[in-house]
Every structure is written in structure tokens, then in C-alpha cells.
Specification:
4-stranded antiparallel sheet, Arylsulfatase, C-terminal domain, 2 domains, 9-stranded mixed sheet, 32% helix, Alkaline Phosphatase, subunit A, alpha/beta
């Protein structure tokens, strides 16, 4: 019998780091995650790409967007081996539940749910269950409304909590976990479709937050100010018609879904505690990217504003450690390296990620390190301990420069100010130092 580490890996789609109640930013509660954080390493990671599907591929492969090159859903990706394949090669029994199509070929057990544009029960375990239990018509209405209006719809079709897609994923994950083998190391990957799936959350969870209060600080977008730095996920007219009430409803649905997922994570962890191998189970909870909920008047994710980039990273060993929260700059590309370290295997040579495990013991991360990069379309971000600088990769010009210490909301672009010239020279050097190792990676 093997006594290697067993792994539970939970990914929320579009889960902002500040959505967890330990951040004390929103009036929502995540009691299960809060309890976990009290015995864990809690980090804030920057997404390697805030654009779908690049964000998912960066998380899975440990590669930056310019390395894996996946920008659209119809691009071939099976040649890219991420952490599910590496875990399997290391002798792990690997199971996946939820939005796991990207790496289903590398799973021993898969309970996949299809993209939310799909309406055929034969293509999705969740839809098949909905058909069997008699609520498929309601699910189809939800999906049609989402496809047509996104989260801008004034009318919604919420389901009961037990019928919701993310509740389904949590239940199937708990069942799969209960059936994991006892004679070999295993890894369970749970990939929720929310909280940023644009679906209304069940009323039970929506009622936890007041829409008037949630939308009270909304300020419409100054599109001329942000055009160069963001790529609008929705038509300009939809953003121009946003009101405090609409933003309040969007935030209510999003935070309600965060609470629903928190409940599902609690179910999964409850099962893990009852397993005979519970003393060998490590968990890692994170997200592929964040999302915007009205910040600077924007909704979506194709932006370098902090809410679109910053995701939670919670690493929990079986034996509680003193809660640690660090200011180290980390990225979603570090997830694959961390999981490989937990499994006792190595990532392919040249992967830029660093294992985050040293932080659990209070040690330093691997050096050298000059900054984080993130990118989408023709925009490239370098983030350092204090500054964010954004470049247009076509004309090789800086288009944004922000002092995160004095302007954490990133409202003052410092380009063309007296301080910018010398600062940009230094940041260009750091960007070159960050990008240079990536040139040696081939996929």
C-alpha cells in the first residue's frame, strides 16, 4: 500500500479572492472556507491570463498564455499535458468532476458537465440527471437566457439548491471521493462552473445579500478612459445601461453562488474526514481567474484590474499548520508546480511555475523572481511589488502605469507624468528578465 499524499484540488470558475469572507470586502459568508483557512496557507494569486479559455489552460499546464497558445475553445489542446497527466504518470488514480473536458483524456474516472451552451442530455451528466428528475425544462430556460442576455437579464429562472449545476458537481465529487481507491495514491479534481457562470443562484442563497446595498457604490464606466486597457466582454450599450439596481442583482447572484459553492466544498471536506486515509489528504483550492462586478463600470474578465486577476490559493495539509497569509507575488502558473511537488514528481523542464510549499514552513520561494506577467489579446501586464505596467504588444508601447501603493483601485494612469520615464525604463528591464526564461519553453 502506498503512503504518498492524496490530493483534493478544487477550482472555482471566476472566483475572486476578495469574494471569500475572510477578505472582509463583501457581506457574504463562506464558513467552510473560513474554517479551512484557519489551518492553511492562504495566498492571493494573480491569474496568468484573465481571458477564457487561456486562464483555464494556464492553470492546468503551468504555462503562460504565450506558451500554450490556447485562445479559443475550438483550438486543439490534447497535445498539452498539464498536472492531471503528470499526476497520472506519477502513479496516481486521477478522477475529475465538473468542467473537466479540457483534460478528460488523462482521467481514470470522469463525471463531466458540458459547457452551458449545451442542451442535449446525452452530452452532459448534469442534464441527464435533470431529465431523469424532471427539471430539464427549467435548466434549458436558464441556459437559453444566459446565452442571450448573460447576467444582464432582468428576469431570472433560479432553480432549487439541489437542482443547481454547482450543487450537482459538489454531490458527484463527494460520491467520487468516497469511492477513491485505498491501495494507491489518488487525486480528485473538482471544477465548478461558477461563481462566474452568469446563472442566477437559488433564491435561498440570493436572499443572503441585499441588492440595494450591494449596488450602492456603482459608478458608470468612463469607456474612453479604459478602452486601451480592457477588452469589453459585452456590448458597449449593455455597459452604458447598467444601473445600481442591475449591478446589485449581478453581485447578489455572484455572491450567492459563492456561498453555494462554499457549502459544496464543505460537503466534500466532510467526506474526506471520514476516509481511512484522511491523514494523508492535502487540499488545494483556487480559481482560474477572477471577474469584474461593476468596478470602474465594467463587467467581465478581460481586464488587468485586480478583481479580474486576483484569485484565492488555499493549501491545506492534513495536519493543521499555523494560519499563514503572505504578501508573496504568486501566480496561477504556480499551481501545477505545487501539485507536482506534492506528488513527488517534476514538471517538464522550462515550466515557469514555482512550488508554493516552502511558504507553509515560512521559507522563501525559489529565486530569482522579478515580477508576475499576465496577458490577453495584444495586452501584456507586468506586476511588481508596487507597480503595474501594461504594454501593447503590437506597437511595443506602454499604455498603463499604476502605483498600487498609493492608488490600489488603479484609477490614476501615471503615463506621461514626470515620474514615468525613469520608472518605465526600470520596469522594461524587469519585464525582459521575466520573459526571457519563457523563450526556452517549447510545447
Amino acid at each position: 500500500m502506498s503512503f504518498r499524499r492524496n490530493l483534493i484540488i478544487v477550482v472555482g470558475h471566476g472566483l475572486r479572492s476578495d469574494a471569500l469572507s475572510d477578505a472582509e470586502t463583501w457581506p457574504t459568508h463562506t464558513p467552510n472556507l473560513d474554517k479551512l483557512i484557519q489551518r492553511s496557507l492562504r495566498l492571493i494569486g494573480t491569474s496568468a491570463s484573465p481571458a477564457d479559455p487561456s486562464s483555464v489552460m494556464s492553470l492546468i499546464t503551468g504555462l503562460h498564455a504565450r506558451q500554450h497558445g490556447i485562445k479559443t475553445l475550438d483550438q486543439p489542446h490534447h497535445h498539452l499535458e498539464g498536472f492531471p497527466a503528470h499526476l497520472k504518470e506519477a502513479g496516481y488514480h486521477v478522477a475529475g468532476v465538473g468542467a473537466v473536458d479540457w483534460f478528460a483524456d488523462h482521467l481514470d474516472v470522469a463525471v463531466p458537465v458540458a459547457d452551458l451552451t449545451v442542451t442535449d442530455p446525452d452530452q452532459c451528466a448534469y442534464l441527464k440527471t435533470a431529465c431523469q428528475q424532471g427539471f430539464l425544462e427549467s435548466v434549458i430556460k436558464q441556459r437559453q437566457q444566459r446565452t442571450q442576455f448573460g447576467q444582464f437579464a432582468t428576469q431570472s429562472h433560479p432553480l432549487e439548491p439541489d437542482q443547481d449545476i454547482d450543487s450537482f458537481i459538489a454531490k458527484q465529487a463527494a460520491k467520487t471521493l468516497n469511492n477513491m481507491p485505498a491501495d494507491k495514491p489518488w487525486a480528485l479534481i473538482v471544477f465548478f462552473t461558477g461563481p462566474d457562470n452568469h446563472l442566477p443562484c437559488p433564491n435561498l442563497y440570493a436572499d443572503l445579500n441585499d441588492t440595494d446595498m450591494l449596488g450602492s457604490n456603482f459608478v458608470p464606466a468612463n469607456l474612453s478612459h479604459i478602452n486601451a486597457l480592457a477588452e469589453l466582454d459585452f456590448p458597449r450599450v449593455a455597459l452604458q445601461r447598467l444601473t445600481r439596481k442591475k449591478i446589485g442583482k449581478m453581485r447578489q447572484d455572484y455572491l450567492g453562488r459563492v456561498s453555494l459553492i462554499d457549502h459544496g466544498i464543505g460537503q466534500i471536506l466532510k467526506v474526506s474526514k471520514k476516509r481511512p486515509d484522511t491523514d494523508r489528504i492535502w487540499s488545494l483550492i483556487t480559481a482560474d481567474r477572477g471577474c469584474l462586478l461593476g468596478e470602474q463600470g465594467l463587467v467581465g474578465n478581460r481586464s488587468f484590474l485586480a478583481p479580474a486577476l486576483e484569485v484565492p490559493i488555499i493549501i491545506t495539509p492534513p495536519t493543521p499548520v499555523r494560519p499563514r497569509s503572505t504578501d508573496d507575488l504568486v501566480s496561477t502558473v504556480d499551481i501545477a508546480a505545487t501539485l507536482s511537488a506534492l506528488a513527488g514528481s517534476d514538471l517538464p523542464e522550462g515550466n515557469p511555475g514555482r512550488s508554493l510549499l516552502p511558504l507553509i514552513n515560512g521559507d522563501e520561494l525559489a529565486a530569482p523572481f522579478t515580477g508576475l506577467i499576465s496577458e490577453f489579446a495584444k495586452r501584456l501586464l507586468l506586476e511588481t511589488e508596487r507597480y503595474k505596467v501594461v504594454f501593447d504588444t503590437e506597437n511595443r508601447q506602454a499604455i498603463g502605469l499604476f502605483d498600487l501603493l498609493n492608488d490600489p483601485d488603479e484609477t490614476q494612469n501615471l503615463l506621461n507624468t514626470p515620474v514615468s520615464t525613469n520608472l518605465l525604463d526600470a520596469l522594461r528591464w524587469r519585464l525582459a528578465d521575466t520573459l526571457m526564461p519563457l523563450c526556452a519553453v517549447s510545447v
